[in-house]
């Protein structure tokens, strides 16, 4: 199916789509096309293998110019999601971590509710060959899992983006209405912490745990850090709660008295 009507008012907005380590410009372009089909325009690209800008991405985007031209490129996932408050990770593979899951449709319902409360939302998609790393998934609040043929659960990047974008659009287009705009305001204490503030808290805590010689042996440190971060992402901390945790960490570190006899 193909067709555009420039006389129609565009439907734009919605959650950010974050492509982590995409390999081919064509896949970025087709993902951008899928986004604009369903009114999503905030494309963020983390460390694209073939660089940016990309002529192949432009060609494959099939005139989804507003998405491609305004795409932002970041070196790390943490930088790409720094301003977001709610983050989903689209992945088909089970992981050795406890993380709540939702279908694309269930996630769309949740995202609509959060969007109307002025939350900043994003969805992570991994590289075509390897998907998202455990470290990237740890930064998310919830996994989006698409029910597909269990013996062939292979979606390409644009297909995965399209499924999530479609469900978002349908949830916001009930009874022929336009997608919901941001309507509800919330107090500062009720606002979810941004990923930037959450990652800063993680790094603060991990630094003090290193100083206390807790994260050992070294070969187990990465998994221990993932487990600790998952504890806090599941808690869905608010702005004020993150500030409180930073104060607790600082206070415990300040009053920690090393026992030299045990060194």
Distance between the termini: 70 Å
Helix tally equals 10
- Indicate the structural class: alpha/beta
- Let me know the largest β-sheet: 7 strands, parallel
CATH fold group of the largest domain: Alpha/beta knot
Bin the helical content: 40-55%
Order of helices and strands: EHEHHEHEEHEHEHHHH
* Architecture (CATH level 2) name of the largest domain: 3-Layer(aba) Sandwich
What's the CATH class of the largest domain, please? Alpha Beta
A few lines on this structure:
This protein has helices spanning 25-37, 55-60, 65-69, 77-80, 104-116, 134-138, 157-171, 195-211, 221-235, 239-255, and strands at residues 16-20, 43-46, 72-74, 86-90, 101-102, 121-125, 142-144. With 263 residues, it is of the alpha/beta class. Helix 5 packs across helix 7 (157-171).
């Amino acid at each position: 199916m193909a067709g555009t009507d420039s006389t129609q008012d565009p439907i734009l907005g919605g959650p950010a789509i974050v492509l982590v380590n995409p390999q081919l410009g064509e896949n970025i372009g087709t993902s951008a096309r899928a986004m604009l089909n369903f009114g999503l325009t905030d494309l963020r690209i983390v460390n694209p293998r073939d660089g940016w800008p990309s002529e192949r991405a432009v060609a494959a985007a099939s005139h989804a110019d507003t998405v491609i031209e305004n795409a932002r490129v970041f070196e790390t996932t943490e930088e790409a999601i720094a301003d977001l408050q709610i983050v989903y990770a689209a992945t088909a593979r089970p992981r050795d971590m406890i993380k709540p899951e939702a279908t694309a449709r269930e996630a769309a319902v949740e995202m609509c509710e959060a969007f109307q409360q002025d939350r900043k939302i994003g969805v992570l998609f991994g590289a075509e060959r390897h998907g998202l790393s455990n470290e990237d998934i740890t930064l998310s609040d919830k996994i989006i899992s698409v029910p597909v043929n269990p013996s062939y659960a292979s979606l390409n990047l644009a297909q995965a983006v399209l499924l999530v974008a479609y469900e978002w659009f349908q949830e916001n287009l009930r009874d022929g209405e336009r997608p919901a705009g941001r309507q509800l305001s919330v107090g500062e204490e009720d606002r979810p912490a941004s990923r930037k503030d959450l990652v800063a808290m993680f790094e603060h805590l991990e630094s003090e745990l290193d100083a206390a010689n807790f994260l050992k042996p070294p070969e187990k440190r990465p998994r221990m850090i993932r487990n600790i971060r998952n504890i806090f992402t599941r808690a869905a901390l608010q702005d004020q709660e993150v500030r409180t945790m930073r104060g607790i960490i600082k206070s415990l570190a300040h009053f920690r008295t090393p026992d030299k006899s045990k060194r």
